[in-house]
TrEMBL record:
GO molecular function, one term: lyase activity
Membrane-spanning residues: none
Domain Mandelate racemase/muconate lactonizing enzyme C-terminal: 132-237
Organismal lineage: Bacteria, Bacillati, Chloroflexota, Ktedonobacteria, Ktedonobacterales
Name this polypeptide is given: Mandelate racemase/muconate lactonizing enzyme family protein
InterPro entries tied to this protein: DgoD-like, Enolase-like_C_sf, Enolase-like_N, Enolase_C-like, Mandelate_racemase_C, Mandelate_racemase_N_dom
Species of origin: Ktedonosporobacter rubrisoli
Length: 391
């Protein structure tokens, strides 16, 4: 079996473009991958075009390690988010192909299931005014859907420092959410790498009273020594520290592991070289007694890939999920994706061979690429309404 075509398809939403990649073979079996590139879709498409010519076309989709290593090593370039995302979408499509040919789900090819239920947390739910009343109302809708955990960034457009009134507002927002959802729901506090060390430490101390499930990415990701400083200063709070969505290679994670600067890694399958690369990271993290909670801002194909990883990874913690609240209509781009069960806030295991989903290319054509630029440091970014899809 040989790969004969790599076809990217871009679906537009009000704040993000989702790139689906169909990998075709000479035996009529195809696989699909997905990635959400923040503001860099053209770069991804350009890289895929060149990589297809030099590395992908003519390759055996069953020889995943060989293909990935050629894409990773043969360009004589330092791996970037663009490169690792392109590798990831092709890699997950190859797993999809292999599972379809062998008539087994991907997680069976990676060691088999170690759990029957996959806990999930909601994101993208707080597209409302930054007031305690609005955040409380929105949070209740999350728990009404059965979720036992939700993530929230209460900090507005803060960067490095935070004005005193914004400090107070952030505390009031988290207090309102905690009051609304009660003591048994996990509140995961997202900091989006906004702060310098002193501001991050200050805000973590102010918010620890609300028993968050974790603090996420308190400082920018480029200087892990600063993250270590924050970790040491806040260890007594007893709140786990999570990070890793903007680390893209094992070499970047090496420093994080050696510093022991976090408790939970959040590698994104679609930006870290794919399913197998992320499973390897999880195994490495396990040696440091760290958990993995994969980052996931994708639509349903990326979510499906994440669920297969979750099914077969022993130190998996919880899966991020946007698409019950942010652009819920994107779920219609596939058939076969499991839904979060309102009874327990968990996904069931995926069914069917490969990734277990079927892509609707006509749906993508009905929602073409949008002219969007998403800025997390703009006022009112939480509305996630940069532009509307072009019809």
């Amino acid at each position: 079996m040989k790969i004969t075509a790599v076809r990217p398809l871009v679906l537009g939403t009000p704040w993000r473009n989702l790139t689906f990649v169909v990998v075709e073979t000479d035996e009529g079996v195809h696989g699909v991958g997905e990635v959400r590139m923040v503001n860099h879709t053209d770069a991804l498409l350009g890289y895929l075009q060149e990589a297809a010519k030099h590395h992908i076309l003519g390759s055996d989709p069953f020889k995943i390690e060989d293909l990935v290593q050629r894409m990773f090593r043969r360009d004589f370039a330092r791996p970037s988010e663009i490169m690792m995302s392109a590798i990831a979408v092709v890699e997950m499509a190859c797993w999809d192909i292999m599972g379809k040919v062998l008539n087994v789900p991907v997680y069976q090819l990676l060691g088999g299931a170690v759990r029957e239920r996959i806990p999930a947390y909601a994101n993208g739910w707080y597209t409302v005014e930054r007031s305690p009343e609005e955040f409380a109302t929105a949070a209740k809708k999350v728990t009404a859907r059965g979720y036992r955990a939700l993530k929230v960034d209460p900090f507005g457009a803060g960067f490095y420092e935070l004005e005193r009134k914004e400090q107070q507002r952030a505390v009031a927002l988290i207090e309102a959410v905690r009051t609304a959802v009660g003591p048994e729901i996990d509140i995961l506090i997202e900091m989006h790498g906004r702060f310098n060390a002193s501001t991050a430490i200050m805000m973590m101390n102010k918010l620890a009273q609300f028993s968050p499930g974790w603090f996420e990415e308190p400082v920018p990701p480029e200087n892990l020594a600063v993250l270590k400083q924050v970790s040491e200063a806040t260890r007594s709070l007893g709140v786990p520290l999570a990070t890793g969505e903007r680390l893209h290679t094992a070499y970047e994670f090496r420093e994080l592991f050696e510093l022991q600067a976090a408790d939970i890694i959040q590698a994104d399958i679609t930006h870290s070289g794919g399913i197998l690369a992320t499973k390897k990271l999880a195994a490495w993290a396990d040696a440091y007694y760290m958990l993995i909670a994969p980052h996931n801002v994708c639509g349903p194909v990326g979510t499906a890939a994440a669920l297969h990883l979750a099914a077969c990874t022993t130190n998996f913690k919880i899966q991020e999920h946007f698409n019950d609240f942010a652009d819920a209509w994107v779920k219609d781009v596939v058939k076969g994706l499991p839904e979060v069960d309102p009874a327990d806030g968990c996904f069931p295991l995926p069914n069917g061979p490969g990734l277990g989903i079927e892509l609707n290319e006509d749906f993508i054509a009905e929602h073409p690429r949008a002219d969007v630029f998403f800025d997390l440091f703009a006022q009112d970014w939480q509305y996630r309404q940069v532009a509307k899809p072009k019809n």
